[in-house]
């Protein structure tokens, strides 16, 4: 069977730092994968390679069985791989709804470039998306007036507006107040399930990993050190020593 | 100053402002989207004027009615935008977006110098005059003043239509929103699948086409000779800087301010004609360095 995303032998180094050392990994549809590991282990590098922003020195990335390694980020996005950033990258002078409509406009290409942005059909679709992430109230607010938690959710909604099959998220809860974290994840995981999107997320909060990941991969020095269910991984003595010990 | 002189100065100023705005808005659009100050914009203006004059002379010589001078202007503007602007962005400017401003200025200045020589090679150094379009529309009498319909009515109409059209395009249409989005955050725009390279290319073609259109529209009103490109880039830069870089509506008002300032200077104190636009610019920038309508870190188009 073809995996949703598969990487084979990814290698990349920056100067003397090995950021990816023979990264071979399969991700299957419907199984949300958490990536954990110390800072500098190559987690974000992995996301950047999968989305085409970085080209590996060697190795391949397959999406639904197709070799996407040489493709541009845009082409990979069009195939169904979206990403959300560690720091939300939104168009700050627009409202939340406008941000989403801009994404749908980019998704649908410009069949009629002169039409109004506020097309009713897309508007209804995006209001539904805002409803899924409990941000209906924020629709008409400028995004720089929203809370960090809401901005994170809008950023992810922008990615979901592209109707991806796979969503790569770099620390979806970083910068979110700890009181808000579980609420944000709760909303997020529900929205992902409803949209039938598989998520890969880098995360430092082991509480979040334990509760929301189906599988966990541990990165260390550019390698995958361990992979398994959250229980298996989080109880592993190496992980407790190298990862949890460091960040807890 | 009597009424006749006042009206003449006023009409001169309006006609001139309309032309300067059409050129300056192209410059400010390019700056707003790509953050590049294109000195070669002046050459594109001059080449638009030369090309229109040549095409018009050709069709008049071929015995076609002079009304065809107007399509010639549009054709020239499109050719300047697509045939010169397109390859410029694609081959040269694309490589310098992330370079220091000094280098960007040097590169676009070099393009300007090269294109100035290209004009001399193609059109020579003798002034060219082709006013078929101006004569075709005739004159209009306002109180005691006779003025050409072309300059008093057509040019301002084109300028206003352009201003309203650009505003509508950037604020209300999908393509405009995608351009604004790319301007705000290029990386985020690419992450949602916007082809930022294409946005830049199309914006530059449109901006270069506007320089060509300005030249095309100016051609029947003036002798076309080497150096008009340099005059125009300096003046439209004054307009753009006074308004605030990237400000489209601001450029319209500033063009009017500088156009009127210049034409009244001609009638009141002719020695200062060349100086007045820059005096206005300096006065504004001393008080508001970000320009009349610019805000230090806000949106640029």
How would you describe this protein?
The complex is a heterodimer of chains A (248) and B (301). Chain A is α/β, with parallel strands linked by helices and 248 residues long. Chain A has a single domain, classed as 3-Layer(aba) Sandwich (Rossmann fold). Helix content of chain A is 38%, strand content 24%. In chain A, strand 1 (5-14) and strand 2 (17-27) form a beta hairpin. In chain A, helix 3 (96-107) packs parallel to helix 5 and helix 5 packs parallel to helix 6. Chain A is globular. Chain B is mainly alpha-helical. Chain B has a single domain (3-287), classed as Orthogonal Bundle (ABC transporter involved in vitamin B12 uptake, BtuC). The longest helix of chain B is centred in the first third of the chain and has 32 residues, at 3-34. The A-B interface holds A 51, 73-74, 77-78, 82-83, 85, 89-94, 98, 101-103, 105-107, 110, 112-117, 158-159, 161-162 and B 169, 172-175, 177-178, 180-181, 184-185, 187-195, 298-299.
What are the key terms here?
heterodimer, A: 248 residues, alpha/beta, Rossmann fold, 6-stranded mixed sheet, 4-stranded antiparallel sheet, B: 301 residues, mainly alpha, ABC transporter involved in vitamin B12 uptake, BtuC, 12 helices, globular
């Amino acid at each position: 069977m073809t995996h949703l995303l598969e990487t084979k032998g990814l290698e990349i180094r920056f100067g003397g730092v090995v950021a990816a050392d023979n990264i071979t990994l399969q991700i299957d549809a419907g199984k949300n994968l958490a990536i954990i590991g110390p800072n500098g282990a190559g987690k974000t590098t992995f996301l950047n390679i999968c989305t085409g922003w970085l080209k590996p020195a060697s190795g391949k990335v397959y999406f639904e069985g197709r070799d996407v390694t040489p493709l541009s980020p845009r082409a990979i996005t069009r195939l169904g791989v979206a990403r959300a950033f560690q720091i939300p990258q939104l168009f700050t002078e627009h409202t939340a709804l406008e941000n989403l409509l801009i994404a749908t406009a980019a998704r649908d290409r410009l069949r009629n470039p002169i039409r109004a942005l506020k097309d009713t059909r897309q508007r209804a679709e995006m209001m539904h998306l805002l409803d899924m992430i409990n941000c209906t109230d924020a629709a008409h607010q400028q995004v720089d007036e929203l809370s960090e938690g809401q901005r994170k959710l809008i950023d992810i909604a922008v990615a979901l507006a592209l109707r991806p099959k796979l969503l790569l998220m770099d620390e979806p809860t970083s910068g979110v107040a700890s009181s808000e974290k579980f609420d944000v994840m709760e909303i997020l995981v529900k929205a992902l399930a409803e949209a039938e999107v598989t998520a890969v997320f880098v995360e430092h909060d082991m509480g979040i990993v334990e509760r929301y990941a189906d599988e966990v991969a541990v990165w260390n020095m550019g390698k995958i050190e361990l992979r398994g269910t959250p229980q298996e991984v989080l109880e592993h003595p190496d992980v407790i020593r190298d990862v949890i010990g460091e960040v807890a | 100053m009597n009424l006749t002189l006042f009206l003449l100065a006023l009409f001169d100023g309006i006609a001139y402002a309309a032309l300067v705005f059409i050129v300056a808005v192209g410059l400010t659009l390019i700056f707003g989207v790509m953050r590049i100050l294109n000195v070669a914009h002046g050459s594109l203006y001059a080449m638009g004027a030369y090309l229109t004059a040549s095409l018009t002379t050709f069709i008049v010589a071929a015995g076609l009615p002079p009304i065809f001078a107007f399509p010639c202007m549009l054709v020239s503007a499109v050719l300047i935008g697509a045939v010169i602007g397109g390859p410029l962005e694609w081959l040269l400017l694309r490589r310098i977006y992330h370079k220091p401003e000094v280098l960007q200025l040097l590169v676009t200045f070099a393009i300007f110098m090269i294109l100035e020589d290209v004009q001399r090679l193609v059109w020579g150094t003798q002034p060219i005059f082709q006013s078929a379009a101006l004569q075709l529309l005739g004159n209009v009498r306002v109180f005691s003043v006779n003025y050409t319909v072309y300059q008093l009515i057509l040019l301002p109409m084109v300028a206003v239509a352009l201003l309203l059209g650009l505003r509508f395009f950037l604020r209300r249409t999908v393509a405009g929103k995608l351009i604004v989005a790319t301007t705000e955050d290029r990386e985020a725009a690419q992450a949602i699948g916007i082809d930022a390279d294409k946005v830049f290319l199309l914006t530059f073609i449109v901006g270069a086409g506007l320089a060509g259109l300005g030249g095309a529209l100016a051609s029947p009103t003036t002798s076309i000779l080497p150096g008009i490109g340099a005059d125009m880039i300096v003046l439209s830069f004054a307009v753009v800087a006074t308004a605030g870089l990237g400000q489209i509506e601001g450029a319209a008002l500033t063009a009017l301010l500088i156009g009127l300032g210049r034409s009244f200077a001609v009638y009141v104190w002719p020695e200062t004609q060349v100086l007045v636009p820059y005096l206005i610019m300096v006065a504004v920038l001393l008080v508001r360095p970000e320009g009349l309508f610019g805000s230090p870190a806000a949106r640029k188009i």
